């Protein structure tokens, strides 16, 4: 009771935007909303940091290191978690990165 953040989970929406943001696909006014939300939400900042690390790993893999089993498992995990929206926006570049 009395928790300020008891009004549902707007975070869900922003979590879905993380991949778009990392892929430089998030446009105004969503970009501003996203940044505003992150400024006030430590959990989403952590989610962003985690996804960013993941993307950097994918890029490293693409740069010549062969993707480890661990990385593939994480790709599959993320794809499983992803919504259809993110799948549509993100699956092409994820495939590009791991191929
Ligand atoms: Zn949040």
The whole-angstrom Rg is 15 Å
Along the chain, the helix and strand elements come as HHHHH
State mean pLDDT (0 to 100 scale).
77
The computed structural class is mainly alpha
How many structural domains in the coordinates?
Answer: 1
Inertia-based shape: elongated
Name every ligand kind in the structure. Answer: zinc ion
**Proportion in β-strands:** under 5%
Number of strands: 0
Note down, in words, how this protein is organized:
This protein has 99 residues and is an all-alpha fold. The protein has one domain (11-98). Helix content is 73%, strand content 0%. It has five helices and no strands. It has helices at 11-22, 30-40, 42-62, 69-81, 84-98. Helix 1 (11-22) packs parallel to helix 3 (42-62) and helix 2 packs across helix 3 (42-62). The longest helix has 21 residues, at 42-62. The N and C termini lie far apart (49 Å). The structure holds zinc ion (ZN). Zinc ion binds next to helix 1 and helix 3.
Produce a short descriptive summary.
This protein is mainly α and 99 residues long.
């Amino acid at each position: 009771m009395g928790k300020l953040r008891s009004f549902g989970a707007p975070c869900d929406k922003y979590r879905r935007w993380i991949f778009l943001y990392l892929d430089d696909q998030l446009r105004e006014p969503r970009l501003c909303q996203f940044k505003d939300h992150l400024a006030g939400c430590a959990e989403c900042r952590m989610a962003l940091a985690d996804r960013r690390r993941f993307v950097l790993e994918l890029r490293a893999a693409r740069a010549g290191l062969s993707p480890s089993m661990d990385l593939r498992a994480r790709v599959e995990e993320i794809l499983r978690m992803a919504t259809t929206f993110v799948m549509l926006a993100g699956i092409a570049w994820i495939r590009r990165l791991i191929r």
